[in-house]
Specification:
about 375 residues; Aspartate Aminotransferase, domain 2; Aspartate Aminotransferase, domain 1; seven-stranded mixed sheet; three-stranded antiparallel sheet; 13 helices; binds pyridoxal-5'-phosphate
Length: about 375
């Protein structure tokens, strides 16, 4: 079965093999060498001054960030993950302002500027780079830049869990950049990543908050290539292997080509792309037969793609592009969707989806 859900993503055999080595103790020179290697590679990838690796899923890093940096966050809610920032703030009795949009719609830079100008007590913005609920790309870089021009002390917390390792992110105005192991890194779930600006580091060093998610304690330890608590050793060894094999420029190029080619191909067979600003991490299609489409894809064509969540549970399907994916797998997914539409009497199969996919894919690769 081809796993094409936007997280967890399939792990490559070389990465799985690296993780199958005998367990290492986390307080050893041997493990610290892996840790240091990953730290340096992550700083490079995120283009941030400091990074942390935490033993938790992505939401743990979201909670740690809210607790450490936010007294009055502006939360951008264009889907389940934006809503999660709001729910975390609520759970800690932190006052917040929320911008709610349909899951296919990103708020404009001007709309956010207006809110910042009218609410001088906002000290942080929490936003997804890609809101995975609808596969929507927010204009995070522009929002961050505008925010800093309004007030440079407002902390930008960007959830890049489905953007890191997908595309080059301009993190120059981002203070906290959040990642997770189970998306573009193709690792098992269980590790969150945080990148910090100089401004964020200063706050961490002043704000001694929380216990397990105390970023001050964690930063002190991780600067010495160790962790405050037991490290997720297996995942970190897998991450080291990822960095060993990953040519990040090629990954960006191929992910982009795969995403654009998939969208073209699906449009060519009459399907509708859901978000107004699609991310490169996944292709999201709006279709009221999504449940049947996914069922046929699984049963007849060995393809597992994701449905939606909540109000969009049965009305969208999402195809993953994150990670290192063989072109013949992505092309089979597109083919299988066209075959499925034939079975559901949408249109007769003529192979156009695959033709459009391959034409667009190789054209994109040639162009960059
Ligand atoms: C997957 C994902 C998360 C992390 O969720 P966890 O289940 O806690 O790992 C957070 N934000 C986005 C945008 C995601 O796609």
């Amino acid at each position: 079965m081809l796993l094409f859900t936007p997280g967890p993503t399939p792990s490559l055999e070389v990465i799985r093999n690296a993780m199958a080595l005998p367990t290492l103790h986390h307080r050893t020179k041997e493990f610290e060498a892996y840790f240091e290697f990953c730290r340096e590679k992550l700083k490079d990838l995120l283009n941030m001054q400091e990074v942390l690796m935490l033993a938790c899923s992505g939401s743990g890093a979201m909670e740690a960030s809210i607790k450490t940096f936010c007294k009055k966050p502006l939360c951008i809610n264009s889907g389940k993950f934006g809503e999660r920032f709001v729910n975390i703030a609520k759970s800690h009795n932190i006052d917040y302002i929320e911008v709610v949009n349909e899951w296919d719609t990103a708020p404009s830079v001007d709309e956010i500027k207006e809110i910042l100008l009218n609410n001088k007590d906002i000290d942080s913005i929490c936003i997804q780079i890609c809101e995975s609920a609808g596969g929507l790309r927010h204009n995070v870089e522009e929002i961050a830049k505008m925010t800093k021009s309004v007030n440079e002390n407002i902390i930008i917390i960007a959830d890049g869990i489905t953007a890191i390792g997908v595309e080059k992110i301009d993190s120059s105005n981002i203070d906290v950049l959040i990642g997770g192991s189970q998306k573009a890194f193709m690792l098992p779930p269980g590790m969150a990543i945080l990148g910090f600006s100089k401004k964020a580091i200063d706050i961490i060093e002043k704000n001694d908050v929380g216990f397990y998610f105390n970023l001050k304690t964690e930063l002190k330890n991780q600067r010495k290539n160790t962790t405050a608590w037991t490290a997720p050793t297996t995942i970190i060894i897998g991450l080291a292997k990822y960095f060993e094999i990953a040519d990040i420029k090629t990954i960006y190029k191929e992910t982009r080509a795969r995403a654009l080619a998939t969208q073209e191909a699906l449009k060519s067979i009459g399907l509708i792309i859901y978000p107004k600003q699609p991310s490169l991490a996944m292709s999201t299609i709006y279709n009221e037969d999504s449940v049947s489409i996914r069922k046929i894809l699984r049963q007849d064509y060995d393809v597992n793609i994701a449905g939606g969540q909540d109000k969009l549970k049965d009305n969208i399907f999402r195809i993953n592009h994150m990670g290192i994916i063989s072109i013949y797998e992505s092309s089979w997914v597109v083919n299988a969707i066209e075959l499925t539409l034939d079975k559901l009497n949408y249109r007769a199969f003529d192979g156009v989806a695959n033709r459009v996919f391959l034409q667009k894919y190789y054209m994109e690769l040639k162009d960059c």
